[in-house]
Amino acid sequence: MRTCDTVKCAGFPCLDIQKDLFVVPGVEIEPEQMKMMLICEAPPPDSKDYFYAGDDAFYLKTTLQAFQEAGVNVVSMAGVLRAGAYVTTAIKCGKRGYAVSTGTIRNCSAVLEQEIALFPNVQVYLLMGDVAIKAVNYISRRQTGKLVIPPGSTYKIRGGEFFFRGTPALPSYTPTGHNYLIEKAKRRMIAEDIRKASDIVNREAR
Prior knowledge:
The chain has 206 residues and is an alpha/beta fold. Helices cover 38% and strands 13% of the residues. The protein has a single domain (3-199), classed as Uracil-DNA glycosylase-like domain (Uracil-DNA Glycosylase, subunit E, 3-Layer(aba) Sandwich), CATH 3.40.470.
């Protein structure tokens, strides 16, 4: 299956995105084999830096570094997928500025909802950044009337027990972009969260 063949946006209603940069993972995968889902924030400004764009893609390099710092020995996106981890973004279009509006996050959460539904065996969700957290909260509010992650800074709520559709959901920080390379404290916390997610998957496999 290729996710991009199923997950679509209806009408591109958002005004603060670049719809020509709309992207959903286009690699062949077996959705039943994906046990961990990393939901990052948005695609990169340059499509060549997208996770699945090739070995030199910047977002791939920082994501691989995050996995390696967590003790997960992967050196390519194919390795990440073989480890049962699927990586995507909450916002599917490139951003026009630094931030996106709550309306855009709400709109795009409907697209993310389509995508999440394709993966029946996910055992843990990693919500990598505020945009991902808000998007999943919008999905949960539509489905259950409740939030997955309570309001508050990620630093303060990390380590809490949160569940999305009965599955553990870990709030974390985004491993993409140049800031990741210089923010050592966040890198440490991202590694901790990926390690915790891997432990959940490994525990379920025993």
